[in-house]
Amino acid sequence: MSKIYKHWRDYPMAEWRWPSFSPQEMACRGTGRLMIVPEAMDKLQALRNKLGAPMIVNSAYRSPEHNRNVGGAKGSKHMEAIAFDVRMDNHDPDTYISAALAAGFKGIGTYPKQNFVHVDARATRANWGKPFPKRHATPSFAAETPREAETVAGDGQAKGILAGLGGTAAVSGGVFSSLGNLDPVAQYIAMGGLGLTAAALVYLFRKRLARLAE
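^ thats the sequence. predicted structure below, dont judge the formating
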């Protein structure tokens, strides 16, 4: 059963079962909205497994307004979240199409000038587009390494922000000890400056934590 999310970040990651792809890759490029049809995604993951190589997804789900903006077909399968446009930078088009058909995709569109192939999970076979020129060799990407979950301890930006907070706290100790020597206006300025600095660092740290959690 399909479901639309206002933004791809709203998708519950505990339910995401397609390890070679991410919600961000599948989201509408124009709105950030996400619609997932599990059966179509299962086919995409099966295709990725058959190919054994990364897939650069140009376009997956499109909201109706974004589909209009990019000149998509009125009945585009992208609006149903069952279509995927994948670049052929590191794939032989003929091999890719054969694997896509074996994975259960029935709609195949070829775009050699733009260097991508469209596949979709419609119910009946459909083919369109010009054939790709025969390739003598297909470039390959470097071998993939498993993704490791990012943590604060292993993230340079987060550690830098924490160091900034620590430095602010250390400076504030010296400032507090000397406040009695300042006139009231200078005291307010000193306290306000420290408060703004600390607030800015906390804001940046929270943003970085949210980024690490994506």
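The radius of gyration is 25 Å.
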